[in-house]
Amino acid sequence: MSYLSTFFVSAGTAAIMAGAAFAQQTDITIAIQLEPPHLDPTSAAAGAIDSVLYSNVFEGLTRFMADGSVVPGLAASWEISDDGLTYTFKLREGIKFHDGTAMDAEDVKFSLDRITADESTNAQKALYAAIADVTVIDANTVEVRLSEQNGNMLFNLAWGDAVIVAPESIEGIKQNPIGTGAFMFESWTQGDKVELSRNPEYWGTPAKLDKATFKFISDPTAAFAAVMAEDVDAFSGFPAPENLPQFEADPRFQVLVGSTEGETILSTNNKMPPFDNVKVRQAVAHAIDRQAIIDGAMFGLGTPIGTHFAPHNPAYIDLAGQSNYDPDKARALLAEAGFADGFETTLHLPPPSYARRGGEIIAAQLAEVGITAKITNVEWAQWLETVFKGKDFALTIVSHTEPMDIGIYANPDYYFQYDNPGFQDLIAKLNVETDPNKRVSLMGEAQKVIADDYVNGYLFQLAIPTVAKAGLQGLWVNAPTQATDLTGVSWSK
Q1: How far apart are CA 93 and CA 95, in angstroms?
Q2: For burial by CB atoms within 10 Å, which of 52, 219, 353, 483 has the most?
Q3: How far is residue 38 CA from its own chain's centroid?
Q4: Domain covering 262-461 in this structure, CATH number
Q5: 30 near 215, Cβ under 8 Å?
Q6: Are strands 75-80 and 86-91 parallel, antiparallel or unpaired?
Q7: What is the value of pTM for the model shown?
Q8: What is the CATH number of domain 27-32+177-259+464-491?
């Protein structure tokens, strides 16, 4: 074709081309590092499930907003009795599950009863232990009676572990999740992606996107390549922070760096010798240079911590100095514990960069005080099965991204197996306390107890960097819960 014939395009063709060029994009491909082991947020501890499904597909009676506030979800309103023991929820009317069945009070009862049942596999079952009875008043009214006051109940009901599911679809929920959210599940290509589509009958503000694809890219080098080539539109929790300056300098991209609820810790099996000895755990704590880990593994992104509590929480106490980097003190403590010549142990590392990169640094730091940590890299599903569920580990690194989750230390069966009756009593008091000032005092006391016991090696509060194309708007900057909420995301015109 000649230059002239190329130039004189017909007016009709030009109009079509212009329309295509300026049509607003209505789909998104967003990458995250971890793939869910299955798709039921109510029966696993894997935050990767919530990363894909929270708010997008599944909803609870209450929900977290981007700023961490708790607002009405499927419940339009509620009343709390004067004694704090009875919550009466009024449900929004006309809500349907994605399969067309009605969402009503019977589904709420089913979901909450399922959490508290003896055979429940809900990872956060302890949060709902105070629920004594759930009664259906009518189709849109449900009464939840507690055995004791719980000042966190509305907060707890916003967790992904308490989303509302239906008995009709529960059998297939792990492979075919059916919720009430603004997006519907379409397909899951294991090892690659999950695809969602817009729910045309959503009860609330409809999603602006027609389609959303979650891609799973665990390798940092592959993550960089995918974003740079624009194969993905955004990467939430971008795993190669050393590349962020390059993206910041590129007008094609925007870089968002927020905070999370993720306490990144060197999790310790408190029942496995020699870590059943507090002096050994204290030695490990003093062998760790937190800032070196933040700089080396996270390229400066992260806040050092000395206990299991988020620094941005008003009740936070800075206890990092209690486990300051002091290798000479670490060696002395090991000698007092009977390990003057050190010992050998294992360090299991799941895929996230903070774990794999941080683990190499920690292993070198432990070696400096005589502790030889043999590294075993494990995939996420394997970590959940052998470390979290099987408790077959000595040391591991993971970021606990659940909001205000210090209560996990009151569960002696939790994977780091810390059994302190005094701490359990303290959390029991916190759970029933409703006075804000007293709650702050109890949370401070709880932080000190686990810091004094050196239950785990407390490393840093995880930052969350997101790299996205310049025209994308509405992404969460911070992560008040582990979620990639796409319900308000759109492309600028």
Answers
A1: 6
A2: 52
A3: 15
A4: 3.10.105.10
A5: yes
A6: antiparallel
A7: 0.84
A8: 3.40.190.10
